[in-house]
């Protein structure tokens, strides 16, 4: 058998190898696209959830919570992008000191950024003694919020005439946006918290 007699077979093997390679490349590209789509779907699912769970409080409103410790949660917002809340509490809201999800009960220790952002129907908020941290923009664009009350047992915050201060009273944290008329900063206040008077109608 001459060398030239083998050439057609060699060419066939070469062509088959190229075709095989093309098929493999197509498979790899397909798998990459499929994997990318799965990852994107997972990311979209994660981004859609700005909270760990929700629960209805004693005053009948639905609040959203993030778990921040083994036994503690903070009140958070509903959506990951603006508007941060599309299902908002209205009227008078009392934030609970504890909340149950499934069989586990958590202590409510914080109010997160944008927790009540754009809740224009909110008129008053009562903060429980369990809350030890309140973040920025917690009541942003709550244009009808007229009063913030803090339970006397709270070791970190207090309210005077519906305005939120730290417990010592030397830092003014938040003047409700729906408050109108004149307001005099009390003696002893040395610090104004970031966004303390944002959107206020004073």
Short description:
The protein has 202 residues and is of the alpha/beta class.
Walkthrough of the structure:
- By secondary structure, the chain is of the alpha/beta class.
- The chain has 1 helix and 13 strands.
- Strands 1, 2, 3, 5, 6 and 8 form a 6-stranded mixed beta sheet that branches. The protein has a 4-stranded mixed beta sheet with strand order 10-11-12-13, with no helix packed on it. Strands 4-7-9 form a 3-stranded parallel beta sheet, with no helix packed on it.
- β5 (98-101) and β6 (104-111) form a beta hairpin.
- It is globular and about 75 Å long.
- 26% of the residues are buried.
Essential attributes:
202 residues, alpha/beta, four-stranded mixed beta sheet, 1 helix, 28% strand, globular
Helix share, percent:
10-25%
- Whole-angstrom Rg: 29 Å
How is the main sheet built?
6 strands, mixed
Overall pLDDT metric: 85
The quaternary state of the protein chains shown equals: single chain
Pick out the low-confidence regions.
6-14, 39-47
- Principal-axes geometry comes out as globular
């Amino acid at each position: 058998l001459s060398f030239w007699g083998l050439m057609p077979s060699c060419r066939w093997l070469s062509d088959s190898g190229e075709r095989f390679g093309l098929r493999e490349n197509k498979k790899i590209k397909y798998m990459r696209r499929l994997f990318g789509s799965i990852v994107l779907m997972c990311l979209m699912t994660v981004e859609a959830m700005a909270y760990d769970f929700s629960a209805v409080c004693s005053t009948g409103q639905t609040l959203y919570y993030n778990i921040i410790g083994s036994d503690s949660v903070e009140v958070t917002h509903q959506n990951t992008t603006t508007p941060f809340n599309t299902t908002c509490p209205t009227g008078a809201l009392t934030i609970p000191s504890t909340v149950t999800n499934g069989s586990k009960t958590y202590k409510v220790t914080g109010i997160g950024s944008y927790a009540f952002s754009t809740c224009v129907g909110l008129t008053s908020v009562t903060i429980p003694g369990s809350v030890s941290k309140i973040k920025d923009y917690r009541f942003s664009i709550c244009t009808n919020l007229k009063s913030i009350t803090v339970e006397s047992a709270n070791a970190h915050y207090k309210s005077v005439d519906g305005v939120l201060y730290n417990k010592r009273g030397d830092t003014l944290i938040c003047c409700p946006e729906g408050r109108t008329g004149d307001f005099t900063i009390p003696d002893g206040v040395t610090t104004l918290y970031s966004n303390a008077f944002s959107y206020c109608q004073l």
